[in-house]
């Protein structure tokens, strides 16, 4: 909507007083917008009398009153050129409804897509957690094979270390010298001239028979005697109901000769009531090279308590010069503890 204003002191000529629409100045040069239905399209010419002398304040007040009256009655006439009507969606209501429907459909589809994506992600995360749980053992408390094997190995290693630190047999030795055991007599010639190999002694005969009831089994610390047969009478720390006997020899890997041909092979065990009294046969045993360094044998006749034991070696593993006995252990139940 456009307006054309006329200055306050302008005067219309007679030539301009025709039927053409002239514009006049609105008070205070302000633009007013009214409804097009109330706007009159005719304008009346108005002459300004230059000779009229009036107070500017009265003229201004009159103009203000006229403007207020026109605004209140909405009858002020002015010329205007109506602009284009505002763009409204009256004739294209179906098109607007279509676009609005598409918008709502896209909004609902996007919401469902977000919800479905969240559901898929949650489901996949749950499957992943379940797989990890199954790898760790699952809800049925089944252990992972690798973890189970690791636990078993740790257990075996700890048991082996404890056994090595304490005793490989794990039973009390009633013939141990440090606990009170003794060697009473020996029926064998000592082997005092040991052979050497590259400066290492194959067997030291100077250690004596008591070496076989001591806890140390280092190479060379054994009872060495000539030949393949020999006897020894042992005194135990108490009267014992003997149920087993253990014989120990060094392995071939740490032997200076690289073999255990001097180790006892077949031996017998007798129970004695007195050092020179009657004896009872407890059993005959064989120490094999494939059975390990420490081999335990069960006694056949377990019936009486004995404090003295006769240990008889019959053969060795092939050495004709000497035989080495590293350690012998006697196990059972003492009388005062039985």
Q: What's the overall geometry?
A: rod-shaped
Low confidence ranges: 1-46
Rg measurement, Å = 63 Å
Strand content: 15-25%
**Helix count, DSSP H or I runs of 4 or more residues:** 3
Largest sheet: 7 strands, antiparallel
Structural commentary:
With 338 residues, the chain is α+β, with helices and mostly antiparallel strands. It is 25% helix and 23% strand. Strands 1, 5, 6, 7, 8, 9 and 11 form a seven-stranded antiparallel beta sheet that branches. The chain has a two-stranded antiparallel sheet with strand order 2-3. Strands 4-10 form a two-stranded antiparallel sheet. A hairpin with a 2-residue loop joins strand 2 and strand 3. The radius of gyration is 63 Å and the shape is rod-shaped.
What attributes does this structure have?
single chain, 338 residues, alpha+beta, 7-stranded antiparallel β-sheet, two-stranded antiparallel sheet, 11 strands, 25% helix, disordered N terminus
Overview in brief:
It is built from three helices and eleven strands; from the N terminus they run H-H-H-E-E-E-E-E-E-E-E-E-E-E. It has helices spanning about 55-75, 95-135, 145-165, and strands at about 180-185, 195, 200, 225, 230-250, 265-270, 280-285, 295-300, 305-315, 320-325, 325-335.
Structural topology:
Layout: H1 56-73, H2 93-136, H3 145-165, E1 182-187, E2 196-197, E3 200-201, E4 223-226, E5 230-248, E6 264-272, E7 279-286, E8 294-298, E9 306-316, E10 322-325, E11 327-334
Antiparallel strand pairs: 1-5, 2-3, 4-10, 5-8, 5-9, 5-11, 6-7, 6-9
């Amino acid at each position: 909507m456009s307006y054309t204003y006329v200055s306050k002191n302008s005067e219309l000529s007679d030539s301009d007083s025709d039927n053409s629409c002239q514009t006049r100045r609105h008070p205070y040069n302000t633009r007013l917008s009214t409804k097009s239905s109330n706007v009159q399209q005719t304008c009346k010419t108005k002459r300004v009398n230059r000779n009229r002398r009036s107070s500017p304040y009265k003229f201004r007040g009159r103009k203000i009153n006229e403007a207020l009256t026109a605004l209140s009655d909405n009858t002020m006439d002015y010329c205007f050129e109506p602009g284009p009507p505002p763009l409204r969606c009256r004739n294209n209501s179906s098109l607007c409804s279509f676009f609005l429907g598409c918008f709502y459909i896209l909004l609902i589809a996007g919401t469902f897509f977000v919800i479905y994506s969240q559901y898929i992600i949650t489901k996949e995360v749950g499957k992943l957690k379940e797989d990890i749980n199954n790898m760790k053992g699952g809800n049925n408390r089944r252990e992972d094979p690798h973890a189970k094997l690791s636990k078993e190995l740790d257990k075996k290693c700890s048991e082996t270390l404890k056994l090595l630190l304490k005793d490989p047999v794990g039973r009390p030795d009633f013939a141990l010298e440090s606990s009170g055991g003794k060697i009473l007599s020996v029926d064998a010639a000592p082997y005092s001239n040991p052979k050497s190999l590259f400066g290492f002694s194959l067997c030291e005969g100077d250690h004596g028979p008591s070496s076989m009831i001591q806890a140390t089994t280092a190479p060379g610390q054994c009872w060495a005697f000539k030949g393949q047969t020999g006897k020894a009478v042992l005194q135990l720390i108490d009267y014992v109901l003997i149920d087993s006997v253990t014989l120990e020899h060094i392995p071939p890997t740490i032997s200076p000769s690289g073999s255990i041909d001097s180790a006892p092979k077949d031996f017998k065990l007798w129970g004695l009531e007195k050092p020179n009294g009657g004896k009872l046969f407890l059993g005959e045993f064989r120490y094999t090279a494939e059975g390990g360094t420490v081999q335990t044998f069960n006694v056949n006749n377990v019936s009486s308590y004995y404090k003295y034991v006769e240990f008889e070696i019959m053969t060795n593993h092939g050495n004709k010069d000497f035989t080495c006995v590293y350690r012998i252990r006697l196990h059972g139940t003492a009388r005062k503890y039985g």
